[in-house]
Amino acid sequence: MTVIEYLADNLLFMDGGTGTLLQAAGMPAGVSSEQFGLDRPDVVTAIHKRYYDAGCNVVSTNTFGVNGLKYADGDIQKMVENALACVAAARDQSEAKQKKFIALDLGPLGKLLKPYGELDFEDAVAAFAKTVNAGKDKADLVFIETMNDTYETKAALLAAKENCDLPVFVSNAYSEDGRLMSGADPAVMVAMLEGLGADAIGVNCSFGPKALAPIVEQYLARASVPVLLKPNAGLPRVENGKTVFDVTPDEFAADVTALIKKGVRVAGGCCGTTPEHLAALIAACDGQKPVPTTKKHTAVVCSGCKAVNLDGFTVIGERLNPTGKKRFRQALAERDMTYILGVAAAQQEQGADVLDVNVGTPEIDEPTLLPDVVAEVQAVSDLPLQIDTSDPVAMERALRRYIGKPMINSVNGKEDSMKSVFPLAKKYGGVVVALTLDEAGIPTTADGRVAIAKRILKTAETYGIDKDQLIFDPLTMTVSADKNAALVTLEAVRRITEELGCKTSLGVSNVSFGLPHRELLNGEFLALAKENGLSAAILNPAAPNIEPNGYARAVLLAEDENCEAYITYAASLEDTPTPVLSVGDETLADAICKGMKDAAVAKTKALLADTAPLAIVENEMIPALDRVGQGYEQGVVFLPQLLRAAECAAAGFEEIKAAMSDSDTVARNGKIVLATVKGDIHDIGKNIVKLLLENYGFTVIDLGRDVPPEAIVSAALEQNAGLVGLSALMTTTVPAMEDTIRALRERAPQVKVVVGGAVLTPDYAAQIGADFYGKDAMDTVRIAETLFA
Amino acid sequence: MATVFVKTFEPPAPDFGEAARYAGLPKTAAVPDTLKAVFSELSPALSYKVCYAEYPIARNGDVLDLGFAAVQSANLAINLDGCDRVVLFAATVGLAPDKLSEKYRRLSPEKALYANAVGAERVEALCDAFCAFLAETNATKPRFSPGYGDLPLTLQTEIFAALDCPRKIGVTLTDTLLMTPTKSVTALVGLKNSP
């Protein structure tokens, strides 16, 4: 029977203090107890046996001070083997009838970890690992105890989990203020230790059972694993030249039993406790049924000293992210930590509960930089972090270095994503943000997104990840590109909350892309999402609170066709630039500029009666699109209007095509292949580029999204394209863009390449060998016009 | 083996002028508001802990046998003259000053300086409070730390072994014999011969 199986139905009693007993048995001052164990194994064995005789189930090895910082490998092996042999001998000699187990004891290293001390985290892990490896074959469990530093506790637990399959019990030593020396309170320790897979957690040393009671009760309220308690026998005092502790065995038994009745499952003693204390406790608990340990079903994340329960509404600060932030990107490139840390500190002051950390820019080495930035931010802010990367190597390194239990951003419904992220979440702990997209992209319906959420949930379960540890992001899409975008997201939020009983998180600002006064839409969208049950949002905590706005709400609820009422309203607000695009209603160009589709078709038909098709395109359509395009570039026309104008032009264009004879040629010479590169499934931007290019008369071969380099090369060759347009929205797929360009250079050197996408910069476009950088769709049109002129 | 006691003190009254002096300001300078702000930020996170043990002193020629270690130090011998017992103690205000100065290292070097200065003032004030506590029941000598005069810093190793500082108050010793948290002090206080 394993100790875990035994613990499932029974109270488990551990041993008491050994230091004072060893001294009483003649251990000289200045000699370490592990050294004394080598010299006098008989004395140590006799003390162990007294605890088994007293009825204890678990006796810990005399290895508190044995670790790789203090001893050479050979000494560790010798000391650990000797210590295990002492406990095993005691177990075999004792005639007591209870179940008996041996715990391999790990105490603190006696060095403070960086950044406040000199010890590197990985060196700490390695130091503990040596003891674990020396003793794992002959122990029933690992007992990590008396730890007063959060980070060192993580190092010890990780060392145990990585190097053996034994159950691991973890116990911390608290100060009077209810915190560890490092500042952590029980909420922090419960979150972190459960996340890292501890099998039982609790407190030892410090004080007597009465003084520890408030701390133990916090553990009991929060922990989903068994709680352990090994208090001191109160405080020491000197009586007639002898050290005595002030809590008697009977008091000890009564005080600890009171906490066992409240739910403590593993009990023993620490400094000053004796076999008599334990015998009294075990007798007092005779017939005492253990209180069942229950799952608490909470999602808590933490830093080294602050826990945040995600049951309330959680504001996740979005500003530690280079996407679309030139200054931040520059800071990362220059390793300008002062700027980055300033952003972190500011967001905390502005009320963020959690800080998202993303360093993904194409120029930098994420696996190196992300863990460093995480460590730096943790030194400045005590807020829990959301580690934001799609690079599994960067994610693992950051999770390892992180102090506490972070949010993990993110996993999605793709098999590959779940295969790489869930094992990390299981090993290191963390609340995982799960995006409802998969190999087929982002479903356009709430049904589709809920279905992906269900699949993610099910897969997480197979990794042993509870649904409490997932928070779903059903993805915010741009309402100006699809009027139902917000409704779908809101429905998905509601259904994931109600049907799956899971938490949700959204990045809200994407909803307002391309529209004026985005803050109104973002604020209203956030309010609507909260009404639908949203539990967290990633946003700019500096954004002011927005009063409810009916125009914005109408847009989000798909009640404002083409956002017209909203745009008019926004134009009436003070700081919106007044539209300079004044349009009459006489010509086809006017109709296109105004986005009047029926009028555009009618006027095209009328013109076709007496005008050459090509002339209509040249004289009406392209000038109209140019006007709208310029307006967009100047910020007086917004994305929905641009798209609508393009649609009008396309409708007119259909009429022209239908009227044309085969000999007429409308299209310009330019043939353009467009693709979102391999691994990237974002295609909104690329689709806009396509629409505009077609409007301008170019022939566009759209290869879609997630297109491998070879497919793009083949298409360019087959189509004899003059230009290839590549889009990438994610930093992680920019390398695929570079690969594609390299392949094109080798096999189709005559083709020019334009690249675009949120994460690109002109510099980086040049660096990966592109000929042009397209800032946006209009810019790409201009590039094509110049190239094919 | 002597019994090691742990005692937690109430926050001693702040001496801003002393903190300003630690920050390198002249005695005549007004205490900057920023320093006071840093004090307010730091204050709630501080702890005031001391672990200590008492030993008899035996003299053997030049060598002082202090129970936990035998030392040769003319300066300490003078300090402990007339004493038959010595209290060895380690005091710390915890990790908070180190954390705050690390936080401000890049954000505000001025505040980082004050975090250090306030931490230094706080731990000295704690030592004063502890010595006052000893003086309630003993006639005491001024405290004397390793590194003062000819008392070697290497004594720290024996002090840490004797007091079990990591376990008792969370203070650890680096390989270079410096203490972490840095706002920590070890010292000896001679108790004068019983009359």
Description:
- The complex is a heterodimer of chains A (789) and B (195).
- An eight-stranded parallel beta sheet of chain A has the order 1-10-7-6-5-4-3-2. In chain A, strands 13-14-15-16-17-18-19-20 form an eight-stranded parallel barrel, surrounded by six helices.
- In chain A, 47% of the residues lie in helices and 14% in strands.
- Chain A is elongated.
- Chain A has 789 residues and is α/β, with parallel strands linked by helices.
- Chain A folds into four domains: 3-284, Homocysteine-binding-like domain (TIM Barrel); 308-548, Dihydropteroate synthase-like (TIM Barrel); 588-659, Methyltransferase, Methionine Synthase (B12-binding Domains), Chain A, domain 1 (Orthogonal Bundle); 671-788, 3-Layer(aba) Sandwich (Rossmann fold).
- Residues 576-580 of chain A have low confidence and may be disordered.
- Chain A has 30 helices and 25 strands.
- With 195 residues, chain B is an alpha+beta fold.
- Chain B has a single domain (5-192), classed as NADH Oxidase (3-Layer(aba) Sandwich), CATH 3.40.109.40.
- Chain B contains seven helices and nine strands.
- A four-stranded antiparallel beta sheet of chain B has the order 1-2-6-9.
- In chain B, a hairpin with a 4-residue loop joins strand 4 (63-65) and strand 5.
- In chain B, helix 1 packs across helix 5, helix 2 crosses helix 5 (109-135) and helix 4 (96-107) runs antiparallel to helix 5 (109-135).
- Chain B is elongated and about 55 Å long.
- The mean pLDDT of chain B is 92.
- Chains A and B meet through strand 8 and helix 13 of A and strand 1, helix 4, helix 7 and strand 7 of B.
Top keywords for this entry?
heterodimer; A: 789 residues; alpha/beta; TIM Barrel; Methyltransferase, Methionine Synthase (B12-binding Domains), Chain A, domain 1; 4 domains; 8-stranded parallel beta sheet; 8-stranded parallel β-barrel; 30 helices; 25 strands; 14% strand; B: 195 residues; alpha+beta; NADH Oxidase; 4-stranded antiparallel beta sheet; 3-stranded antiparallel beta sheet; 9 strands; elongated
